[in-house]
Amino acid sequence: MMPGRINENxxxxxxxxxxxxxxxxxxxxxxxxxVGWAERM
Length: 41
Fold this sequence. Notes:
Elements: H1 12-23, H2 28-40
């Protein structure tokens, strides 16, 4: 996946996590760690 784009094929939970983290200006690397954590749950 390209940084900066939210994949519309991702589950809604993952999309909402990405949107929230981007709204709060978190780093892309931090976003990927948080999303990875959520996916493993």
